[in-house]
Amino acid sequence: MRSVFIIFSTNHIGGAEKRFAGLWRSFQQTDQLALKVVLVLNQALYDRLVEAGELADANKNIIVTKLSEKNFKTYRLNVGQFIKQNTVKGDIIHFVGLSPVVLSHGRKQLFSLTGTNINIIGHVNKWLILASCFMASAIDVLDPKVHRQIVKYFFWKKEIYKTSNSFCDTELFTPGPFDQRKNWIVLLGRFEPIKQVEALVEALPLLSKHLKEILQQDFRFIILGHGPLEEKLRMIIRQPQFRGVPVVIEYEKKPDKVLRESKVILSLQRHNNYPSRSLLEAMAAGNVPLVTDNGDTRLIAKPEFSFYVPETFTPEDLAEQLVKIFNMDKKTWLYKSQSARNVVIQDHSIEKMAAYFNNIYQNM
């Protein structure tokens, strides 16, 4: 039996890591697959995925090893050695995020390009991504705009696919009763610049003041996640102007409990929110999305149930849309809430994603 090795290049946990851990889990739960699927990752990422409930400790078909280091050269050497020692001819090496740009004689390479912009980090990263695409036997691209770019750059490659969907567990993420939901406004995600979580936090004193004056109601901002900006965010909310601002910044292992009681999900990512895992989870739990209107965001946060702010937003932009949301009557809110959940159920199932990748594997 041929094997597929899904190899993560990172130590941090984000939407891509959760998505492919879920894909791996799905493949472990079926005996209909003619392939053995193995997950390969660093210890730090493994620990974080276990902590988040994405993996169970001591699962079979997981290899925890030393891959990523502080520089790309070491990562490349580590992965090259791993392939040589653990794989055989005919196997598929599935790189997620960034490939090490190595030859894998007799093995096929699938590269999943999970970013929303190939030049988002800088020119060096751009050329590494393009080199990863060049080395790959097949390419899976998440973002529709990036997919069009890759097709143009590598016009001679036939095996270039656009990722079918993201997914979440719609049995876990379910709406709570309307009358038990609270005026909670949630942001769920990794604390890094692209998510604009720092801009949101800095806007909160003025935003909170606007909402209270206009709506005469109490609100709570709940910011859930981990990431490199975590300590900076905590320092910001210790400043005097945050006295009395109802904000919580914490990590929540089971965000479904918060999302079934909250009313609004903020997804303020730059460039594109498609297809955000945390946004899907909140929509499945019946939250109304308030998102930055950019890229292909509207493919998931559809106009019939979503509200939008510019990519570079102000406290006034956020306040204007939140006032609209909280001024909706119960019937309108429930319609938008159920419409958001229906999109997740219809278009973003794990079965759809597993079938998509199984088809790619079978054709390699």
Describe this structure in words.
With 364 residues, the protein is an alpha/beta fold. 39% of the residues lie in helices and 16% in strands. It has helices at residues 15-28, 43-51, 72-86, 123-135, 144-153, 197-215, 230-236, 256-259, 277-284, 315-326, 330-347, 350-362; strands at 3-8, 36-41, 62-64, 92-96, 108-113, 138-141, 160-162, 184-188, 220-224, 247-250, 264-267, 288-292, 307-309. The strands form 2 sheets. The chain has a 7-stranded parallel beta sheet, sandwiched between helices. Strands 10-9-8-11-12-13 form a 6-stranded parallel beta sheet, with helices on both faces. β5 (108-113), α4 (123-135) and β6 form a beta-alpha-beta unit. α1 (15-28) packs across α12, α6 (197-215) packs across α10 (315-326) and α9 (277-284) crosses α11. The longest helix is centred in the middle third of the chain and has 19 residues, at 197-215. It is globular and about 65 Å long. The two termini are 14 Å apart. 41% of the residues are buried. The mean pLDDT is 93.
